[in-house]
Here is the input.
Amino acid sequence: MTEDLAAGITPDRVAFTKRIEARGHTAFVMYAGQVCRIVDVEGKQVADLVCFDLHDHTDKLSVNNTMLLNGTHLATTGQHLYSTKASVLMTIERDTCGVHDLLAGSCSEGTNRLRYGVRGTPNCRSNFEAALAPHGIPLAEVPYSLNVFMNVPVTEQGLSIQEPTSKPGDYIDLRADRDLLVAVSNCPQERNPCNGFRPTALDLLVYEPDSVAETA
Ligand SMILES: [Zn+2]
Here is the structure.
């Protein structure tokens, strides 16, 4: 666990912490008001994230509505993550990196086969499938992701995947605006600069907001 993972957060406010090893995945429940901190432990590591209304899995992250309603394809502090039904699912409360992606989707068996001629490689879509199967959500119902720390600049030449700008210890804080089921894939991609060609661990910390601690 990174030493400064919980910087500024008193221990009584920590709901849980979790390390996602390189190429790994996880799914977890967050309640409205809780904040999820995703920490890039060594730097240059992408976290693909999807989320669902805990009580209505058909209302789930829509990167399209997120870009439409935020008015930008960039994601950073103050912006909301919107659902397929245009509900606010999450809000970005803090962001020490500032470079994330909503355009590039998630790596998959199919895209790895088409782009690199390889089969059976670890990929984010398969990670989501494994993480969400215990929650009764099949792969076909998993939306495309917010890609935390992914660097996909848009230029006149088009889209390209570049190495992340995230440094060791960079983090993003995502507040749950309703009860959520969240899944994170620690992106296993090694065949392009997405993760600096070296997948590494991520740390997660879910904590209670200030107001809860103050009134407790
Ligand atoms: Zn990936």
